[in-house]
Amino acid sequence: NFVAIFRDHLLEQVLEIIKGIPVPYDPAGEKRVNVSANAGVYVIPEGTVFENVGDIINRIMIVSALARKEEEGSVIFYDDRMMEVRDRSMRIQRIFPMALAAKEFKVFYQPKVDVTTGRIVGAEALCRWYRDGKIVPPMDFIPVLEQNLDICQLDFYMLDCVCKDICRWLAEGKEVVRVSVNLSRKHLPDADLLEHIMTIIDDNQTPHQYIEIELTETTTDVAFKDLKRVVYGLQAEGISTSVDDFGIGYSSLNLIREIPWN
Fold it and tell me: CA dist 12 to 6, 7, 34, 39, 204, Å?
C-alpha cells in the first residue's frame, strides 16, 4: 500500500498512471509490461482543518478498500456517506452478539404454493431483526455479517429456531411442510459443517424430511468441491438440498450436472 499527497491540479496525470502505464523491464527498454493499481482518492476540501493525519488516512483506507474489490485499475472517490456506512457496519458488528443473545432475530415463513392446487407445499425461512421496536431491513445487516463469520452464527441460530417451530407444530397436530433454511457460502471452508448442521437438527429431534438446506453457488473450484461434499453428506442423512441464486456463481453447468440437488 502506498499513500501520496499532492496538489489537485496533478490529479488527472496521477490517475492516468494508476490506471495503467507501460514499464520497461530490460536494459534496452524494448520489453514492457503494463502496470496498474487500484486506488481510493480523497480530495481534501478547501479550507478543511484536521486535528491529525489519521483523520485523512481513515478516509483513504475506507475508499481504497472499496477500490481493491473492483477490477484492476479501478479508482474510487471518497464521499462522506462512506464514513457513515463504515460507522454503521462497525456498530452492527459490535451489537450483533448481544442482539443474538437477546433473540432479537425472528423467523418469518414465506410459503411456497402449488399454483395448480393452491396448497402450501413448502416454506422458506426468512430472517428479520427487531431492534428498538423497528424491523432492521436485511440489506442493512446481512452484508455486514457476511464480512466475517458472524453470518454463520446467525444461520445456525435460524436453523435451530426452524427446528423448534417444526417440532412444536408437529406436537400440536398441525400439517407441516418442508422448510428451507439458507446457509451462506462462508460456511463451506468449515470441515465439520455437516456435523454442525446435523447436531442442531438431531438435538431438536426434528424429522429430517421437514428440513431443506439452501446453499448459494460458489465462486471457486475449491469451494465447489466443499459444496459437493456437503450436499452429498446432507442427502445421505435424508436432508433435502436446493441451490440459491443459480447462474451467478462458478461453473453453473457443473453445479447441476455433478451435484444431485433436490
Answer: 11, 11, 18, 13, 62
| Residues facing 211 on adjacent strands | 179
245 contacts 216 by C-beta, under 8 angstroms:
yes
Question: Which pLDDT tens digit goes with each residue over 79-94?
Answer: 878 777 778 888 999 9
Residue whose entry in the numeric block shows the C-alpha cell 499527497:
5
Q: Which amino acid is at 106?
A: K
* Residue 73 cell numbers, joined: 485499475
Half-sphere exposure of 11 (CA within 13 A, CB side): 12
The answer to whether 103 touches 82, Cβ cutoff 8 Å, is no
Tens digits of per-residue pLDDT, 114-143? 999 999 999 999 999 999 889 998 988 998
Task: Using alpha carbons only, give the angle 83, 89, 90 rounded to the nearest 5 degrees.
Answer: 90
- For 196, residues 6+ apart whose C-beta sits below 8 A from its C-beta are 156, 190
Taking the whole predicted model, whether its pTM rises above 0.85 is answered as: no
CB-CB contact of 139 with 89 (8 Å): no
Residue showing cell 438435538: 203
Contact 235, 260 (CB under 8 A): yes
Question: Given the DSSP bridges, would you call strands 105-113 and 120-131 parallel, antiparallel or unpaired?
Answer: antiparallel
pLDDT < 50 positions in the chain: none
Q: Cα separations (Å) of 226 from 142, 236, 241?
A: 23, 16, 14
Beta bridge partners of 105: 129
